[in-house]
Design a protein that fits this description.
430 residues, alpha+beta, Nucleotidyltransferase, domain 5, five-stranded mixed beta sheet, four-stranded mixed beta sheet, 16 strands, 23% strand, elongated
């Protein structure tokens, strides 16, 4: 269906604009400072009875008119006014109690003040944006934009959309910066390489995570190859009790390499802080400040530095042999994870690295060595599935960006909806 618009001076030919409003015809078109106002009526003379499903055609009046916001025309708002016909069912009605059914249309969701086409537009605007930004651009109330999100975006995963899972990722994010109040986020990477959001859970307790994992259908459990997580007991125990205890699930548990790296980087960073305090006490202020200005180089991998930067790093490490030794151990371990090693080769090299650290006089790796011993097999599994951790880390970056953009998201359901929209919105509402 289209509307015909003619400029007021009548010199421009009539323009036909598609409206994507099926089963109605135009009754009237007016314009005022608010925009265009279009009145339409149904051209369908029947509907299905809400009780028995029979096709009925006996008219029984009209519902109250509704006015809906539609897609703009020439950057002017367009409002659609529609009175839905009501039909009576002769089979379900009694002489004193007529059973009526109001006709529905596929371009409007009941109780929404917007057409579905305009809701699609709103959802596209919300991708990588905020509700506040969209409502300002569209001149809509905040609750109207939020209502579109709540009506149109699912709040939980629909397992029927999946044929395979392949890789499951479990991680967390703090609700608020500086607070140990975490949301657990569960994702999957499909064989096509797509990252799919499965759940945002209100906490990372084992019972909560296990309850969700238990909902994964048996047909999808059989397709799982890898479960990638960090070393949080709640995640690991939930995976072991729910998925790995299932004889039809043959997935391997992999400790995410980025979390492993986080542990040994923290160990070296603790020594850096200790050595920095020592140098501050022992060196002249000017010399200390010069060295302190090169500390950012210490946080970088040696092979990413320019020759000049490497020289400056050497000046720093020459002042602290302990820090040089720790830096070298850190770099060795990073190169080990980057190398195309088999599990057997990785086992040998990790054991050799551990022995070298134990033989050194460094104590900063003590906690990490315990971690390595406790999770040795699961860390080694990375070398079976070295592509697994990247998608988890990449998704977490999206989560952090969304959290900053929305100044924190305390509502778990809305967090799921916003993440889902950012991931799949263009595909769903393009």
């Amino acid at each position: 269906m289209s509307i015909a618009l003619r400029f007021e001076n009548g010199t421009v030919p009539t323009l036909h604009l598609p409206l994507d409003l099926s089963d109605v015809e135009i009754v009237a078109l007016t314009q005022d400072p608010e925009g265009y106002h279009l009145t339409v009526q149904s051209v369908v003379r029947h509907t299905a009875c809400r009780q028995c499903g029979t096709q009925i055609s006996q008219l029984h009046g009209y519902a109250d008119p509704i006015t809906l916001r539609h897609l703009a025309v020439f950057n002017h708002p367009l409002w659609i006014t529609f009175r839905a016909p009501r039909f009576v069912c002769s089979q379900c009605s009694t002489p004193h109690h007529p059973v009526t059914t109001t006709q529905s249309v596929d371009w409007h969701t009941p109780r929404s003040p917007l057409t579905r086409a305009y809701e699609d537009h709103i959802l596209r605007q919300l991708i990588n944006s905020t509700i506040e930004d969209v409502r300002r651009k569209e001149n809509l109330p905040y609750d109207t934009v939020l209502g579109v999100l709540e009506r149109r975006i699912a709040t939980t995963v629909d397992w029927t959309e999946f044929t395979e899972l392949e890789i499951l990722g479990i991680d967390e994010i703090a609700r608020r910066k500086g607070h140990r109040d975490f949301l657990a986020i569960i994702t999957a990477r499909t064989p096509t390489g797509d990252t799919r959001l499965l759940a945002v859970l209100p906490n990372r307790d084992k019972i909560t995570v296990k309850a969700f994992l238990d909902t994964i259908p048996a047909r999808l459990r059989r397709t799982l190859r890898t479960i990638c997580t960090d070393m949080w007991d709640g995640y690991v125990n939930a995976v072991r009790e729910s998925l790995l205890a299932d004889p039809d699930c043959h997935a391997e548990l992999v400790i995410d390499r980025f979390h492993v790296a986080q542990h040994y980087h923290q160990a070296v960073d603790a020594l850096r802080k200790e050595e920095l305090k020592r140098l501050q006490r022992e060196l002249p202020a000017a010399e200390y400040q010069e060295l302190r200005g090169t500390l950012w180089l210490f946080r970088q991998r040696r092979d990413t530095l320019t020759p000049d930067e490497q020289t400056r790093l050497e000046c720093l490490l020459a002042r602290t042999p302990r820090l040089r030794q720790a830096y070298d151990f850190r770099e060795q371990l990073t190169r080990l994870f980057d190398s195309p090693l088999t599990v057997s080769e990785a086992r040998t090299k990790l054991q050799a690295w551990r022995q070298a650290v134990q033989a050194s006089e460094l104590h900063c790796f003590k906690a990490f060595l315990t971690t390595l011993e406790n999770w040795f097999d699961e860390i080694l599994n990375y070398f079976h599935h070295r592509q697994t951790s990247g998608f988890v880390e990449g998704f977490n970056n999206k989560v952090k960006v969304l959290k900053r953009r929305c100044y924190g998201l305390l509502n778990v359901t809305h967090f799921f909806q916003r993440l889902y929209l950012d991931l799949e919105g263009y595909q769903s509402f393009a």
